[in-house]
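Archive entry: two folds, one per protein. Generate the first.
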Amino acid sequence: MGRWGLTAPSEWNISGEPCSGVASDNSDWDNYPKDPAIKCDCSSNDNTICHIIKLRVRKLNVVGRIPAELQNLTFLQDLGLGFNPLSGQLPKELGNLTNLLSLGISLDNFTGELPEELGNLTKLEQLYIDSSGFSGPFPSTISKLKNLKKASDNEFTGKLPDYLGSLTELEDLVLRNCRISENLETVDFSKFAALTMLFLGNNSLIGTLPDVISSSLKVMNLVANNIVLGSTKNSDISTRGSDNTIYEADATNLGDASYYVTDQIRWGVSNVGYFYQATDRMDIIYSSEHFQTAVDSKLFETARMSPSSLRYYGLGLENGNYTVMLQFAEFAFPDTQTWLSLGRRIFDIYVQGALKEKNFDIRKTAGGKSFTAINRTYTATVLKNFLEIHLFWAGKGTSGIPTQGYYGPMISALSVTPSKQTCYINFNVGYIGSNFTPTVRNGVPKKGSKAGEIAGILTGASVLGLAGLFGIFMWIKKRRTMAKQKEELYNLVGRPDVFSNSELKLATDNFNSQNIIGEGGYGPVYKVVYFPQLSDLGKLPDGRVIAVKQLSESSHQGKSQFVTEVATISAVQHRNLVKLHGCCIDSNTPLLVYEYLENGSLDQAIFGHSSLNLDWAMRFEIILGIARGLSYLHEESSVCIVHRDIKASNILLDTDLIPKISDFGLAKLYDEKQTHVSTGIAGTFGYLAPEYAMRGHLTQKADVFAFGVVMLETVAGRSNTNNSLEESKINLLEWAWDQYEKEQALRILDPNLKGFNKDEAFRVIRVALHCTQGSPHQRPPMSKVVAMLTGEVEVPKVVTKPSYITEWQMMDGNRSYVTSSYSGSTTHEFGRQNEIEPLQQSPPIIKAGR
């Protein structure tokens, strides 16, 4: 730990003894929320000697090499060092850890080949080395790892070694995105008797997939290879219809507002809605009944349900005409009495946005029978390599309180096939020509002017010709740029809806200024007042009100950055993040389409003119929700994101007062292999961490600092700076520390709070002060912040006031070098405090909120 500059958490380093506290108790290792972490076994020598058996140092930006001293932990069973910028070669001394059962070093920055000494780890069951920088093939000594159950790597080269088949315990083999060149017909898959998961996508594999790979195989991904499917009938991977169509499995349970893309990247599925009084979170239902009229009965043994809106997306399709077949069978209603008492399942069906079935009733269409298969066939035209099928429940059919499983869309299988009679070729002929016909005024030219007129005509024609050619060139260049940007967007996996400029012009009443609800980092934000082909104002087909964010021409963010933001936002979906519905890039100013959150921003709710009257319980849940959203951005999302502009006006509240982090205009992708990002300052005074304001040193801890300020604002019911107050209270952070040192921290609470949990309030204030420590290393990661807020982890004692506050107090009383034009002034987000443009040089010390 000392080599890496880490300090042992107090929970397992009691009185200087590492093997104490949670390190030696019965707490759950897998669900322990902290890093670093150790686990000890103190049973040796009549419980007098302790040995470290588990060590985890993940996602802590640990820099350097693995110290050789690690080989002394010979009792180690579990070693996790992933998600750090560790470098150098993997020490061969790791081969001395012969008791090791699990080794995880994914997403590090090692070099060279794997050492042969890894073959000494004969007890090893799990090996995770994805994206760790290693080169070359696996060493042959890996064949000694007879107990290996899980192996994962994406930098392996060469061929699949023969000895993999001798690893008879192997259950999960993941070698995707490698450089494997292999003919699958030469691989004896029969040796992989225990294999349940096989991922070999994005390699250079060829040949025909064998009929039988493993009887226990459940999940397989061979996407992006040159492989011909054999006649495998492994139903856990896919279901084959009677017409030899392979149906890819759709067995993932979705959340209240979530989506996923299948491993083959052929289909995307999204679900919106929550089953009222749901007894479980299952949206896949099963039946073992025999289905009438079903040629392929197996297709109807499962069905996906949704309480509101269910969408399927066909991805990467060639443009042309397709036949869409949807297959249904009602089996949630087992008998007539239940059917009559609960109502009917009625929903609408849209294909490519066109209404195909209004008030579709599965059971009625099947002649009033359950367990009877029916299908619906439609034609659809794909123009942008993308197909959408939307099943939407509009609230009809259920007269009583809706019960889980007895209302909303339900579907068993679907298929999309090219129309057999149609040949289609994308062939666009563009003809651009110019026909200059010079004209002169009527009458006889004056003597001597003919040569001049001819010269003038020729000159004019030349100028017009050059101008025309230049215009054509610029037009073609613009078209190509736009086509490239659209291609980038359409290639996004799980991409959002793409709106046309004409749709959004109608929706915003031609971007009428009266519909502006605020000004964000991209420019004005409009609330939709009309949408084409709809009778309801301000609604999308599935009942959503939307906010359209228009990229202003004066914005520093161009279209390429716009596409980057779309990719970023599309990749992250969370309950506490503002949902991106779609975008538009065919207008002069690109547009983003967000969910509209009618309760506005947090700054309006706590120190604006809102009538929400937030009590303590509401404020605490808002704080906790923001923390969870940031924890997702920093530590759980597939891409690690630093927001850079966390503030009260960038937190929006939905109808249930659930907080959602907005405005990713300043978000910057953060490379986990770097300790920080050196960047121009971009943020808002009052929320800037000292290291970011002074040196442009950006890490996740800058967001943690800003969140600490937002926490204090939320509990105090005021902005971080208020020049109308007495001198000692102008700066909220300074005042909070003053009251904390006087053991009167609760005095900073909003006087409008009539009742609150004092212990909980004091804990929130302590967490906020912990988040706003001067050194980023002293601030906790957001996952720990969540644990501290919920009481799962004790809040460490805040020892001293940060030095930057002491420096403020030692200054000559100069509180005016930052103007008050932004102090506490906000508008709805879509309304904001004044923002800082990127600085060309490091500024002097900037007081938070001054």
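Generate the second and append.
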Amino acid sequence: MRSSKLFFALLGSLLVVSRSFGQAPPVTSSADILLQLQKLKVLGSVLYVAAHPDDENTRLLAYLARDKKYRTGYLSLTRGDGGQNLIGDEQGVSLGLIRTQELLAARRIDGAEQFFSRAYDFGFSKSTEEALRIWKKDKILSDVVWIIRKFQPDVIITRFPPDARAGHGHHSASAALAIEAFRAAADPKMFPEQLQFVQPWQAKRIFWNTFNFGSVNTQSENQFKLDVGGFNPLVGKSYGEIAAESRSQHKSQGFGVPRQRGVSFEYFSLTGGDSVKTDLLEGVATDWSRTGNADLNPMVDKVIANYNPLQPSAIVPDLLTLRTAINERSSNAAKYWVQQKTKEIDALVKACLGMYAEAVTNQQVAVTGDSLQITINVVNRGPLPVTGVKIQYQDTSFVVAPTAVNNQLFTVVIRRPVFDDFMADQPYWLREQMDTGSFTVHTPLLIGYPQNPVRGLQVGYTIDRTYFTEELPLQYKFTDPVKGEIYQPVFAVPPIVVGSLPPVILNNLVPKHKQQIEVSYKSYMQKDAAKGTIRFEMIGNKGAKDKNLPVDMAFNKNQLQRYNISFDSLFSKEKPQQIYPYIEVKDSSKVKRYNNAMKLIQYDHIPTVHYFFPNNIRVINEEIRTVGKLIGYIPGSGDGIPEALKQMGFTVENLDEGALASVDLGRYDAIITGVRAYNVKESLNNNYDRLMRYVSEGGNLIVQYNTSSQIGPVKAKIGPYPFNISRTRVTDEKAAVTILDANSPILNYPNKIGPADFDGWIQERSIYHAAGWDSHYQPLFSMHDAGEDADSGSLIYTRYGKGFFTYTGIVFFRELPAGVPGAYRLLANLIALNQKKGF
């Protein structure tokens, strides 16, 4: 019975956008109210489909949602996990969490709703076939069908075509899946297990929203087109301005764009369904006549006509009358829109009364098994009485105010046990082990959600004999002296969270470099009588076994404890491949194991995001030889290379703009630039001559990949001789690597590089290859994806004066944190390039 309630609660809640975690309660102006009133008469919907965050056409979404007032959704098949990160070093699922929140911020601006499938962004793909194979086509097709059946769009629009013009295998696959789902969603034989919750749905038509990306123009004047550049006087902005604000939320991708004003056409090519001449929803009744209830149209008109922006509460009686009339329509044809419009009316009633309710705490972390102080604030800022205001939390309900009226604030403080399962706050798509190309979600009704459904309190109240309920997320509220009032999500944690550093241990370095393991733990509860032991589960060639380290452990609330442990002394006889540190705690004759690490992601533009993962360390037992001691590192957009260099035994000094211009560069055995450094650091252009002088006097400059595009142009000279940066990449991490010069020092000193060094790589080989290079440069490797010509631009190098310069698109920033031995050995050789005499 309990799971049944959960299913239907989830099914219903997809019909309305709920408040996001970590988001201040929305402010609704009189202009906003009028826009929402006008929307009550519009019964049309459009679903936009593409592959990634930032693929969506925000101008079109803003036009559809705010001008046409259609219910508008964006289905991004992936969360953008495999992209690059311009603001930090998060990769994979961590980056996907950031980009999910950026999409939600964008939707709050343009007015559309956000959905996802279970597809994982595994990086750049060059074919539809590869994307569908890795994603498991039927799995993701079922997700697209599921969302179509729930959202019931009249029109589906894809951002891309299902062919090579899409420019990315994920792009073309998103179109191919949408086109197939357009028909499959209407077929009861397709994914029949969904039909216990939804019904088959046939959209009227499906379009491809053609584009002009400069180098690729797919638009033509014989296509259907719309001017979406209009001005909305209630918002005070044109749709081009709204679109720019929305798109600029994709900060991790560096997608800030200028506001656009004036006429702006979007073009559409029909890929299925009925053709059109004048309107995207041509042939669809988009008012209440579509449900056989045309008599509701004049009722909505009356509410709008009676609306006074200086006294919004005056139309609440009319809204309640309309709500009753709508809910008397119970036909299957009306059911979907009755539910949707009832939710819209409920939000309007609250906005017209100025109703405000929040549930906040003075701490962000809630410990399973503990209690939490919760403050509930409720105020009705309108003149109509709101009666019987009560709160439902877990299995308890209590009255906040018998009657709330005339701007009187009611506050209730309670203390209640917190959530009993901290994993319920884990992002739902990360709760289970994922497949290679997709997430595992065992609760089908969660599929499509951008984030976990709200887990908090429910406030209920009565207005003129009509009972309303509202879900209140439990939030942490505090005041920052600079930023002011801030809301952040509250999340549950286990009593003890464990961590360890580094993520990779190099167990066979030559010369020897002591490897230290830092095991840390934070106790979120006071455990005075508890006794603890640090234990290590080791996985190796001979299976698994445990090793323990007796230490004195204290469990003081909110106190972080760290223990530095010599890897060599503890594991001198073993060669484990994986180590899983955990804390074993004995408390009142009970022994509990704590092995969950927690990742916190904190940026000003998104709410705090967290997730749990098994605490583990990868051990590399292959020999890695190094030469040199001191590395100068010029950070780019963010990567984990400096930490890997320290593990290799190097001393790493960060070269910021001031240091780059003033320190003696000749001290460094090598200088390495971080990923995209030349895209984001103007100082590199200013210090070009200094860097080239460093190289010519015997230095070694290693430049990691940069992009050359509208989004990330390279504004500086990079090497001593000319070369270009292309968009060529090798996306198959197993692609064969051909060595072009077996005698190169890069392949021979101090490590002998061979085919085995290219085994076990992740996601891709190399990106943004060099092209058109001067004859002074020497390429070292040739590689290519299936069906393509070989390319030798993944690494080029040259002697310049007494030193060396290297440009490489090889993805060290992915391979080193993943513990790929060959990547460490190859980087060690690049660093040693100017150390061996005779070359």
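Annotation attached to the second fold: Confidence is low (pLDDT under 50) at residues 1-21. The two ends are 76 Å apart (CA to CA).
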